[in-house]
Amino acid sequence: MFTRTPGQLAMLGATLSELSGGRFTLGLGVSTPSIVQGWHGVN
Asked: Domain Luciferase-like, which positions (predicted)?
């Protein structure tokens, strides 16, 4: 499983949307607290 920070995801989504002429849609799902805290240090 790969992980990206929220900022990285936003930049990726914006870049792909621009490259695709606005046809890109980013879909996100939920995670578990242990993943968020362990990978990103967020409480």
From this structure: 2-42
